[in-house]
Design a protein that fits this description.
Elements lengths: L4 E11 L8 H16 L17 E5 L12 E5 L28 E5 L8 E3 L11 E3 L23 H10 L34 E2 L2 E2 L19 H11 L9
Parallel strand pairs: 1-2, 1-3, 1-4, 4-6
Antiparallel strand pairs: 5-6, 7-8
Bound molecules: arginine, zinc ion and calcium ion.
The site of calcium ion has 4 residues, from loops.
């Protein structure tokens, strides 16, 4: 805690349809959402939970590529593939995808149609370098509150899927611990029986009120507005000296 960390991002857009080839403006709207959510400057932040905190983590599109050349921080590739699944094929040029940029220097984001109703997925710290990063469907990447004409799908159209996936990338678990009243290894988040959908404010489970506003639940984008101090400590530990993501 105490200093602001800025993480350089490269966004790899892999598209078949023109809708899937989302605009630079839609991509920038997602970067803006990440910066607001991780600095708790999001307009929908409320005072429902006193442990809500500013993560002091920021994101910027990379301005220099792996070879030291100027870049927009966005790559684009046309493909005939209709859906990519969750086996990391989009991260491999040999499989028709796009190889990661040096994962010790950049947070790689692939934007492609995953299929199967999956909004996004992430790799936790400590996994294989070549597949490190986050993947989101194009219709869940960006915010309809920050522009018009974007290709986005309500109620997941406010950029919170990427906020959630970057939470995983920085070592956060789901708030329900992926089991019945499970453990997310964060002391200041209440134990949840299971995931919540929609926005059931006031829901009680495992003996306490659920924190349905947490980015690591499964509620609608418009329901979520916070990470906690305990989640901050966990994320910043992997970025600190000795942490697996310190080089970012
Ligand atoms: N299914 C995804 C995951 O577990 C993310 C869900 C994001 N939720 C949202 N409201 N945008 O990683
Ligand atoms: Zn998740
Ligand atoms: Ca907890």
């Amino acid at each position: 805690n105490g200093s602001i960390i800025t993480i350089p991002v490269v966004v790899h857009v892999i598209y078949r349809t023109s809708n899937e080839n989302i605009s630079d403006a839609q991509i920038q709207s997602q970067i803006d959402v990440l910066n607001e959510d991780f600095r708790r400057t999001n307009a929908d932040a409320d005072n429902a939970w006193s442990q809500a905190a500013d993560m002091e983590i920021q994101f910027c599109l990379a301005s220099v590529d792996e070879n030291g050349n100027a870049t927009t921080g966005i790559t684009r590739k046309s493909s005939t593939r209709t859906s990519w699944g969750t086996n990391d094929a989009m991260k491999s040029s040999a499989q028709g995808g796009v190889d990661a940029w040096d994962t010790s220097q950049y947070l790689n984001m692939w934007v492609c149609n995953i299929g199967g109703g999956i909004l996004g997925y992430a790799q936790f710290p400590g996994g294989s370098a070549s597949t490190d990063g986050v993947v989101m469907g194009p219709q869940y990447f960006g915010s309809s509150a920050k522009g018009s004409g974007f290709y986005l799908s309500s109620p997941f159209d406010l950029g919170r899927t990427t906020t959630h996936e970057v939470g995983h990338f920085l070592n956060l678990r789901h708030i329900w611990g992926d089991s019945n009243c499970g453990n997310d290894f964060v002391a200041d988040t209440p134990t949840h029986q299971t995931s919540n959908g929609g926005c059931p404010i006031g829901q009680v489970s495992c003996g306490s009120t659920d924190m349905v506003q947490n980015y690591m639940d499964y509620t609608n984008d418009s329901c979520m507005n916070l990470f906690t101090q305990g989640q901050k400590d966990r994320m910043r530990a992997v970025l600190a000296a000795g942490g697996v993501r310190r080089s970012l």
